[in-house]
Write a structure and sequence with these properties.
The chain is α/β, with parallel strands linked by helices. Helix content is 36%, strand content 28%. The chain folds into 2 domains: 3-70, Winged helix-like DNA-binding domain superfamily/Winged helix DNA-binding domain (Arc Repressor Mutant, subunit A), CATH 1.10.10.10; 75-264, 3-Layer(aba) Sandwich (Rossmann fold). Strand 6 (131-135), helix 7 (140-150) and strand 7 (154-157) form a beta-alpha-beta unit.
Length: 268
């Protein structure tokens, strides 16, 4: 196999399995070349990715040796992606009765969803989460892509328990906006005790769901190492959680004038 073909194949394998460590010996067996030749191939890939800001290709030293890929985004790429999302969300036709906006097409778009997940992964990777946790159902796509980028399992908390889940822990929590008592349930087998977890949700108003998730993780004796939200509203001003990362800030929905005011979060 020619070097160009080998580099193309290695690149595809790395990108499709972010954070997976490939041993140089495995590549040597697949392509029938020496480790020194593979090191030269990886140097070319790493240089190209660095010049084009396509993520990080990390070489692992040691007796075995290996390589892995991180789909991290640069600050400029994060700003560009969130700005594009804000432009989409400001479209007047997205306004729904009650002052809400339609976001399902954005969090269902493979392109935007991939970038949103990579943004959360880039920000929270250093905290070394072992699980991504979300509540059914709207937040699942964002949480799943985040878990995929981090190469860790996704755990979905249910609104109602299911028989097939076995023993569950059910907890009541106070909704931040409606001020109503709601419930969430999680199978005892879904999450290992003492785990490090990252909470991800698609939309946050008062923060009741994230607060409930945090309390539920405490019941599993797990440590919450981060909280990520795709969109946070400007109302109500008093939130039940403050230590979270939002990507987009929904300031105002003017139903009468058909106007939506959205901006990137301050940290962006």
């Amino acid at each position: 196999m020619r070097r160009a073909h080998r580099i193309a194949a290695i690149t595809k394998m790395l990108v499709e399995q972010p954070q997976r460590v490939y041993a140089l010996g495995d590549f040597a067996d697949i392509f029938g070349v020496s480790r020194s030749t593979l090191s030269e191939d990886l140097a070319i890939i790493r240089q190209a990715f660095g010049q084009l800001d396509l993520g990080l290709v990390e070489t692992i030293s040691g007796a075995i040796g290996g390589v892995r890929y991180f789909p991290d985004l640069t600050e400029a790429q994060i700003r560009e992606e969130i700005s594009k999302v804000c432009e989409l969300l400001e479209e007047p036709q997205r306004i729904l009765p009650g002052g809400f906006i339609f976001i399902d097409d954005v969090i269902s778009s493979p392109f935007h969803l991939r970038n949103i997940g990579n943004i959360f992964a880039t920000y929270f990777r250093s905290r070394e989460p072992e699980y991504v946790v979300t509540v059914e159902t709207a937040g699942i796509p964002v949480a799943l892509k985040t878990a995929s980028s981090l190469k860790i399992p996704l755990v979905i908390v249910r609104r109602q328990s299911r028989v097939a889940e076995g023993p569950v822990l059910t907890m009541r929590f106070l909704s931040g906006t409606a001020r109503q008592i709601e419930t969430m349930s999680l199978s005892r087998r879904a999450l290992a005790s003492k785990s490090r977890v990252l909470l991800i949700d698609d939309f946050m108003r008062a923060g009741g769901t994230l607060r409930g998730l945090t309390d539920l993780m405490g019941e599993f004796d797990c440590e919450v190492v981060g909280k990520g939200v795709f969109i946070e509203t400007g109302w109500p001003k008093e939130k039940l959680v403050t230590d979270h990362l939002a990507l987009v800030y929904l300031k105002e929905v003017d139903v009468e004038n058909q106007k939506v005011l959205v901006q990137p979060a301050d940290w962006v």
